[in-house]
Amino acid sequence: MQHTKLNGFTLLELLIVVAIMGILASIALPAYQNSVLRSARAEAKTELLQVASDQERHFSNFNTYVDDATPLNTPVVAGRDRTTQNAFYAISVAACAGGAITNCFLATATAQNDQTADACTTLTVSNTGARGATGDTTNECWQR
């Protein structure tokens, strides 16, 4: 009786490969998700700084800030908000605590949709350039 050798993988070999793939996926997926959250946060920081720049330009021309987060080179309609390009943060502008919108503002980016899973749920910047955040420390949110 002649034995022929069968080609293929044993069950043990397949189980080892599946286990290795599971371990790699459990490491790679959270790192990828964290990277996506950080990139959306960077987009929100850019938008906030643009809003602050628009507000300062408006203040230098009219000696007042406005509660308008839209680009101020368009006709001003008070109370308008805007979102980041991918709609992960809503941007708004209001008078700073204890002040009037005519002499101080606080621009706020609030996480929405999938971005609410981020540690930094709210980012702020004021007319003095002071930065703030909720959910994590301000330094962590603005440096990463």
UniProtKB/TrEMBL annotation:
This one is known as: Pilus assembly protein PilE
Pfam families registered for this protein in UniProt: ComP_DUS, N_methyl
Q: Which residues cross the membrane?
A: 12-32
Name the Gene Ontology biological process terms. type IV pilus assembly
Keywords from UniProt, A to Z, are: Membrane, Transmembrane, Transmembrane helix
- Taxonomically, which superkingdom? Bacteria
